[in-house]
Write a structure and sequence with these properties.
single chain, alpha/beta, 8-stranded parallel β-sheet, about 45% helix
Length: about 260
């Protein structure tokens, strides 16, 4: 059975004090209210990783992830953080290929493949993001865009190496634009992604890979989205900064 996952991406928000308080609220709510076996992952800025990983130790279904890492093991890369550094402070996941990293920092598929390798070499689990822009969606070429991102970023891996990958589909056109991807549209793309996994790695790997939806998921639409056959959870942005909203999204799996 595929793991059900709700991951919160805090992006560049929360100083140390407010972030610790927010995470403490989330932990208490998860412990008191979450009934299922869904995995909760919180991905804060680097400054929080060690402290939040220590807080999460006593809650088995809560893990910490970073929002990015550098592909090199070490070196003269001022301002960067390596996968081994992330692993050393107790984090377990790393978001890679997020649309904002692709757009604002011009991260290429080749660079992301190197980052994936670095993360795996350090025993961490990549949350690998793919998604199309509004222009790509309207052109009708979005399936090919998604296929290219997967081929360039993760399909170089063996089936065994790929087995720890979590995928996240971000319809970039539906994030902060006022447009919304319907559950049917989201399911269509998730089913397509899974079909690519079948072709690349076989049915067993495809059916065990969790694919998250990352397009403005909130407490009101989470249950309907998560009820779709190929949607295994969410990569949550803004709603992850509100403990009540975030945990209510997690609780969409309670039923």
């Amino acid at each position: 059975m595929r793991k059900k996952i709700v991951a919160g991406n805090w992006k560049m928000n929360q100083d140390f004090t407010s972030g610790t308080a927010l995470f403490s609220e989330v932990l208490t709510m998860v412990q008191d209210e979450v009934l299922g076996s869904q995995q909760v992952i919180v991905c804060p800025p680097f400054i929080h990783l060690n402290a939040l990983a220590q807080l999460a130790k006593q809650t088995p279904n809560v893990a910490i992830g970073a929002q990015n890492c550098h592909q090199a093991a070490a070196g003269a890369y001022t301002g960067e953080v390596s996968a081994s550094m992330i692993q050393s402070v107790g984090a377990e996941y790393v978001i890679l290929g997020h649309s904002e990293r692709r757009q604002y920092f011009a991260e290429s598929d080749a660079q992301l493949a190197d980052k994936v390798n670095a993360v795996l070499e350090n025993g961490l689990n990549p949350i690998f993001c793919i998604g199309e822009t509004l222009q790509e969606r309207e052109s009708g070429n979005f399936f090919e865009v998604l296929k290219t991102q997967l081929e360039g970023g993760v399909f170089h891996l063996s089936a065994d190496a790929f087995s720890v990958i979590v995928l996240a589909y971000e319809p970039v056109w539906a994030i902060g634009t006022g447009l919304t991807a319907s559950p049917a549209q989201a399911q269509e793309v998730h089913a397509f992604i899974r079909s690519l996994l079948v072709a690349q790695y076989g049915a067993a790997v495809a059916q065990s890979t969790s694919i998250l939806y990352g397009g403005s998921c909130n407490p009101k639409n989470a249950a309907e989205l998560f009820s779709q056959a190929d949607i295994d959870g969410g990569l949550i942005g803004g709603a992850s900064l509100k403990s009540r909203d975030f945990v209510d999204i997690v609780k969409a799996f309670n039923t």
